[in-house]
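Exercise 7.
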Amino acid sequence: MSRAMNFYAMKAIYNFEMARTRRTLMQSIISPVISTSLYFVVFGAAIGSRIPEIEGVPYGAFIVPGLIMLSLLTQSVTNASFGIYFPRFTGTIYEVLSAPVSYMEIVCAYVGAAATKSIILGVIMLGTAALFVPLRIEHPIWMIFFLVLTAVTFSLLGFIIGIWADGFEKLQLVPLLIITPLTFLGGSFYSTSILPPFWRAVTLFNPVVYLISGFRWSFYGLADVSVAVSLGMTLLFLAIFLAVVAWMFKTGYRLKS
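Solution. The predicted structure, written as tokens, is:
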């Protein structure tokens, strides 16, 4: 007979992770916002004034969804990976595992906290972008949906990395060497429609293309790939990461030793 969800335990873990964010406000929120603001100044104002509109959208406004997605992906992965790695590093994860808390509740708490941080950051960056460039959001419900879905999906990836990593340097390996390059090459600063046919076909193997395309569509109604395909790919990533997390807990991968 299945027991009820232990919401008290989930809330305790969630609140602990959110409190850690408040203690490191400069690193968690302020630093990413400042970095992204510099992108708006350099690309939006300085370079954007020399680039014509892209499909009727000023260049400075066109890059906003890509920049938000860049920060959302990297921060979701980083927040979740550090969140679960530190309990492993200090040994407190064994207290959590021995408590009357299910694996699902542990994942929901850690991933929920990481996704919340990333969503808050994304909203702040959206407000910051509005100070620099004229924004419009044609599909606000879909924008929120893509924002939340992406944050949860890549927080799951970060959770996986936090369990897999056996050192601090590995925590930064995926965000710096994989996520960031794929985001830059995934249409953050340009539309893939301007690429030659061969390279446009190559970019379709970049999973971040689908994330940025769907998110940009929610702003301007512009998409490099079908919105349905973008949504389907994001849900596919979510399903894959959920399956990997389930396998890790089932086998005790790097959790029972």
